[in-house]
Amino acid sequence: MKYRYITIERQYGSGGSKVARLLSEKTGIPCYGHEILEIAAKKENLSVSEMERYEEKVTSSFLYSIYAFSQVEQSNGNMLTNEGKLFVAERAVVRELADKGSAIFLGHCAADILSDRKNVLRVFIKADKESKKKRIMEDYGIQESLVAPTARRFDKKRSNYYSFNTANKWDDLYHYDVVLDSSVLGINGCVELLAGLTG
Question: Domain spanning 5-195 has what CATH number?
Answer without folding.
Answer: 3.40.50.300
